[in-house]
């Protein structure tokens, strides 16, 4: 059960050029550069708090806006996670976390089920934090969930500072993911069907 679980994806389109490598059995070490400082900050938190080591390099059409860069990073990261998990046998599968960030509180509950779905209930006050459009938070997690095969529910319970709110969301997702990708005690697949 201590096999190295890695995923590596190169994704190139007319809008973005993305390289992602992740290691589930890593120590949450990261080397991340997307061209969007606040997004780098969120992905670094996702890596550190999930314990998943991530190397993410992105060149995107930021002269347009951040949309393609953020969404396509979610696609590639989801594909890399799906690759690293393989058949998803022997994992805990479910994870739920409530994470406070000063005055903000966020919750993420997820199932690595191979049935992708996203419920996202988060309201932001401002348009952006730095060069990161806050509306792209939902687009990132949708792309990530659908490409990794995750049923994911994210709820921002309350908060007033948009930086804190977004960070609580990313960290809640990280801690839920950390629980779900871990191996269960007996190594069996947690499904009445026998497979995920």
Tell me what you see in this structure.
Helix content is 34%, strand content 31%. With 196 residues, it is an alpha+beta fold. The protein has a single domain (6-181), classed as Ribosomal Protein S5, domain 2 (2-Layer Sandwich). The strands form three sheets. It has a four-stranded mixed β-sheet with strand order 1-2-4-3, covered by helices on one side. Strands 5-6-10-7 form a four-stranded mixed β-sheet, covered by helices on one side. Helix 1 runs parallel beside helix 4 and helix 2 (67-85) runs parallel beside helix 3 (136-148). The chain is globular.
CATH topology: Ribosomal Protein S5, domain 2
**Uncertain ranges:** none
CATH homologous superfamily? Imidazole glycerol phosphate dehydratase, domain 1
Helical fraction equals 25-40%
Indicate the mean pLDDT.
95
Q: State Rg.
A: 16 Å
Q: In angstroms, what separates the terminal alpha carbons?
A: 18 Å
What is the CATH-assigned architecture? Answer: 2-Layer Sandwich
Largest sheet: 4 strands, mixed
| Order of strands across the main sheet | 1-2-4-3
Counting helices, strands and paired strands, the structural category is alpha+beta
Strand content: 25-35%
Number of domains: 1
Compute the number of helices. 4
How many runs of DSSP E, i.e. beta strands?
A: 10
CATH class term: Alpha Beta
How does the overall form come out from the CA principal axes? Answer: globular
N-to-C order of helices and strands: EEEHEHEEEEEHEH
Summary, kept brief:
This protein is α+β, with helices and mostly antiparallel strands. The protein contains 4 helices and 10 strands; from the N terminus they run E-E-E-H-E-H-E-E-E-E-E-H-E-H. It has one domain (6-181): Imidazole glycerol phosphate dehydratase, domain 1 (Ribosomal Protein S5, domain 2), CATH 3.30.230.
């Amino acid at each position: 059960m201590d096999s190295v679980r890695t995923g590596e994806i190169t994704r190139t389109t007319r809008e973005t050029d993305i390289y992602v490598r992740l290691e589930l059995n890593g120590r949450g070490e990261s080397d991340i550069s997307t061209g969007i400082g606040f997004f780098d900050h969120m992905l670094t938190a996702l890596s550190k708090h999930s314990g998943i080591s991530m190397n993410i390099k992105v060149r995107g059409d930021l002269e347009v806006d951040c949309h393609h860069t953020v969404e396509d990073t979610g696609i590639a990261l989801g594909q890399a996670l799906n690759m690293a998990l393989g058949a998803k046998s022997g994992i805990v599968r479910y994870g739920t976390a409530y994470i406070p960030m000063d005055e903000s509180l966020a919750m993420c509950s997820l199932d690595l089920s191979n049935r992708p779905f996203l419920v996202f209930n988060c309201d932001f006050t401002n348009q952006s934090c730095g060069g990161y459009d806050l509306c792209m938070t939902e687009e990132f997690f949708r792309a990530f969930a659908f490409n990794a095969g995750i049923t994911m529910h994210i709820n921002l319970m309350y908060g007033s500072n948009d930086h804190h709110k977004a960070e609580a969301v990313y960290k809640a997702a990280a801690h839920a993911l950390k629980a779900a990708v871990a191996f269960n005690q007996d190594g069996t697949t947690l499904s009445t069907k026998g497979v995920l």
